[in-house]
Write a structure and sequence with these properties.
With about 325 residues, this protein is mainly alpha-helical. It has helices at about 15-35, 40-50, 55-70, 85-100, 100-105, 110-115, 125-130, 130-140, 155-170, 210-220, 240-245, 250-260, 265-290, 295-325; strands at about 5-10, 35-40, 75-80, 145-150, 180. It is elongated and about 80 Å long. The relative contact order is 0.14. It binds iron/sulfur cluster (SF4). The site of iron/sulfur cluster has 14 residues, from helix 11, helix 12 and helix 13.
């Protein structure tokens, strides 16, 4: 029996290079080894974006297209939309009743988001329960593992605590601790050197046209110490060089040479990188076009994913009801 992995993304906008190297590359490996459930968590998107909910539907389709174009394979993995499996909300409701308020109020991510995000009103009952829905997502499928980065460890710990509390209350070892699959992903900053984020508009999207990619890369921040063309650069301090490392590692040696010896200027270096990136994304964009043009096939994939996910979810929920109500 293969172990089960659950992973998710919120459909809040176009996928960018950060998603590709931070999650999708890893998912491609995981789907060879595990039974993977890849979920488009639209209720989670709604919790934070309830004022702009009209976009969520389009974003779901775009996200499914991006996943498929990147090679997430519905023959190997279950690809589905959270809101199409209502059992997520039922288990969320049950967990909401057993989760102490203090656990949620103390959650560092919750506190940070309330502090940092000023463009949306997140002081809602629903948003406080965001990690409770995450726990429901994971435990509904009795997932053995969840791929996460170091910064998400508190989330998985809360999922474990909620599962353990349920077990303790009903005196049954039903939910097991999900393991955190800590994944080392290359750190890719945004084009301006800040954290890559949709809200900073500092990312290359997987769907960007070659012209758009060129213009974004042209404006990328480089080594701040290299002011004149004749100044030798410091590649290890340059964001463009770190992009070369991820998307065109075969060119790294040349870049190092021309940069440290001031043989090429930054604009030329960036344009060479833009061409390499366009080439790297070409197969994904080609597949993107095919899926975009075949909405019925994408919808079929999501419907099939719903059926397969719901089969597992219903069984778990049936057992949960038996445990609670006898
Ligand atoms: Fe960065 Fe390339 Fe300029 Fe060197 S030449 S500082 S690697 S953009």
């Amino acid at each position: 029996m293969k172990k089960t992995v659950f992973s998710a993304m919120r459909p809040t906008g176009k996928l960018h290079l950060g998603h590709l190297v931070g999650a999708l590359h890893n998912w491609l490996k995981l789907q060879e080894e595990y039974t993977c459930l890849f979920c488009i968590v639209d209720w989670h998107a709604y919790m934070g974006e309830y004022e702009y909910s009209r976009d969520i539907q389009d974003n779901i389709f775009e996200m499914a297209v991006d996943w498929l174009a990147c090679g997430i394979d519905p023959e190997k993995s279950i690809i589905f939309v959270q809101s199409q499996v209502p059992e997520h909300l039922i288990l969320h409701m049950i967990f909401s009743c057993v989760t102490p308020l203090g656990w949620l109020e103390r959650n560092p991510t919750y506190k940070e988001q309330l502090r940092e995000i000023k463009t949306r009103d997140l002081q809602t009952y629903g948003f406080l329960g965001y990690p409770v829905l995450q726990a429901a997502d994971i435990l509904l499928y009795k997932a053995n593992a969840v791929p996460i980065g170091e910064d998400q460890l508190p989330h998985i710990e809360l999922t474990r605590e909620i599962g353990r509390r349920f077990n303790h209350l009903y005196k049954k070892e039903f939910f097991h601790d999900a393991e955190a699959l800590l994944t080392e992903t290359p750190r890719l900053l945004g084009l301006d050197g800040r954290k890559m984020s949709k809200s900073y508009q500092n990312a290359v999207n997987l769907s960007d046209s070659p012209e758009n990619i060129k213009s974004k890369i042209k404006n990328m921040f480089t080594d701040p110490k290299r002011i004149r063309l004749s100044d030798p650069g410091h590649p290890e301090e340059c964001n463009v060089y770190s992009y070369y490392s991820v998307f065109a590692p075969e060119k790294k040696e040349d870049v190092y040479q021309w940069c440290t010896k001031a043989q090429k200027g930054c604009t030329e270096c960036k344009m060479i990188f833009a061409e390499a990136l366009i080439k790297h994304l070409a197969p994904i964009q080609q597949k993107r076009k095919e899926f975009e043009g075949n909405k019925a096939r994408v919808q079929e994939t999501l419907n099939d994913g719903q059926t397969r996910a719901q089969r597992i979810a219903r069984e778990t929920l049936h057992e949960v009801r038996e445990i609670i109500f006898g």
